[in-house]
Specification:
Length: about 140
């Protein structure tokens, strides 16, 4: 098998402290199966717009709905599944060699992404047909 694909997506619980002064959640290296090399966020997505719509070869990610809600559709060798993310105490782990589509962003939603690799345009697969061929061969 040319590409490394041996995991399904999964929801993971985020350590946090919630009290009268608010919510504080955290991750640190050692808590995850990968070392975080990059973080980025997505916010202010207009109604009915989608993000993602591509696959990644080597990248693993955790997507956290810091504010609001949105949907994440994942396709990989093992599953085609859609998650509704609306709880900042749960992140979605996306394994290598997965297609992702983010949609239905609620007003004022904000999404934090922890990534296992530095930004690399060569890691992207933009054509769904190419992606399906890669996971099925
Ligand atoms: P992209 O990953 O395509 O986001 P989405 O699929 O949600 O639209 O990234 C959009 C643009 O931002 C792309 O032109 C590259 C740039 N970008 C970086 O330069 N570094 C990064 O870490 C990320 C995630 C994106």
């Amino acid at each position: 098998m040319k590409y490394n694909m041996n995991m399904k997506s999964k929801l993971i619980n985020i350590k946090s402290m919630v009290n009268s002064v608010g919510e504080l959640g955290w991750f640190q290296n050692g808590d995850l199966d990968f070392i975080i090399k990059r973080i980025y966020f997505i916010k202010d997505v207009p109604e009915n717009q989608k993000r993602g719509l591509h696959g990644h070869k080597e990248l693993e990610q955790i997507i956290i709905p810091l504010m609001g809600s949105f949907e994440v559709k994942i396709i990989n060798r093992f599953e085609e599944v859609t998650y509704i993310l609306d709880n900042s105490k749960q992140g979605l782990y996306i394994p290598k060699m997965s297609w992702r589509e983010l949609s239905n962003f609620s007003n004022q939603s904000c999404c934090l992404i922890l990534a296992s690799e530095l930004y690399d345009p060569n890691d992207y697969i933009f054509n769904i047909n190419d992606f399906m061929e890669m996971i099925n061969t």
